[in-house]
Amino acid sequence: MEKIRIVIVDDSPFSIALLRDTLEENGYEVVGDAGSLEEVKEVIKAQKPNLVTMDMTLPGTDGLECTRAIHEIDPTIKVIVISSMMDEEIMKEAKENKVSDYLQKPIDPDELVTSINRVMASDELYQLLEMESFPVFKESLLDGINRMTKTLLTFKDEYSVNKEYESNGITVLIGIIGKFSGRMLIDLSKETAHNISAALLRREPKNNDEIIAAIAEFANIISGNACSVLNRKDKALGLRVAPPSILYGDSVYISAPNFKTTTAIAQTNFGELLINVGFSRGEEKWT
Fold it and tell me: Can you give the residue ranges of the Response regulatory domain (predicted)?
């Protein structure tokens, strides 16, 4: 990646000096600074930065007006707000004005570097997910089965086809959020679910609710472990899993997402199960 060129927008000489030192110590090129709307317009036109750090409180203007002015000049420039002010309403307005991230003063250098890398490395990060996410999830499933049931599995019939399909009986959906949003889906028959839950519980399940709970937690562990591995590959991914959603019954159809996914069939000692994983190129908004 080419050296990232950054403009600092702040009316405090102390804050500018602190940010400049932090940024330059971490290999970024600070190409200018500004403390007013007119100065912002001038330095953006002259220096053509990749990214701007933006204070929210400025004389005669604010960070959102400056952000809009920057994007009128070049909509590809990323803006990270760094402000002492941070509440739900102002963050909502920042999102609406296409701010890429929002950090609160006093700024932590590691947090700032992670934010910049996450904002600027979208293409590289998405390529990492495209190449490595499905193998990592498969390995997590294999490892999870082995560790929790002391058995092995084999994969077959791996394919990438996005279409609606009918569930075999029980489907667990795990939403994934972070730099990119995605999902992991595990689908299996009621018989396979019963067999796996019995192995997990080391006894016969008492009822259907216990089977559902066991399979949901099993899927949650698989997805969480896989996301942890991917985060270790690049912490800018910031992947986290949402609580599982369980669909079960007769004639349940699972709709295809609007992004590419990959599917594999796993043959286990308990029956077949399907794993499906994919990530959207569209970024999740920061929180």
Answer: 5-120
Structure tokens at 78: 């990323």
Q: In this structure, are residues 86 and 55 in contact, taking their beta carbons and an 8 Å threshold?
A: no
The torsion region of residue 80 among left (phi > 0), alpha (psi -120 to 50) and beta comes to beta
Dihedral sign, Cα of residue 97, residue 101, residue 107, residue 112: negative
Whether the Cβ atoms of residue 186 and residue 219 lie closer than 8 Å to each other: yes
Q: How far is CA 93 from CA 3, 60, 98, 127, 137, in A?
A: 30, 18, 9, 31, 36
Q: Residue 257 has what pLDDT?
A: 87
How far apart, in whole angstroms, are the C-alpha atoms of residue 214 and residue 191? 14
Give the chain's end-to-end CA distance (angstroms, integer).
Answer: 26
Residue pair 42/36 in contact (Cβ under 8 Å)? The answer is no
Are 222 and 184 contacting, i.e. CB atoms less than 8 angstroms apart?
Answer: yes
In the chain the domains, ranked by start, together with CATH numbers, are 5-120 (3.40.50.2300), 123-283 (3.40.1550.10)
Strands 153-159 and 261-268: antiparallel
Nearest to 219 by CA among 195, 250, 188, 177: 188
Q: What is the pLDDT of residues 191-247, one digit of tens each?
A: 999 999 999 999 999 999 999 999 999 999 999 999 999 999 988 788 999 999 999
Residue 71 binned pLDDT confidence (cut-offs 50, 70, 90): very high
* Model confidence pTM above 0.85: no
Q: Which two tokens stand for residue 232?
A: 């270790």
Q: Which amino acid is at 142?
A: L
CB atoms closer than 10 angstroms to residue 218 = 24
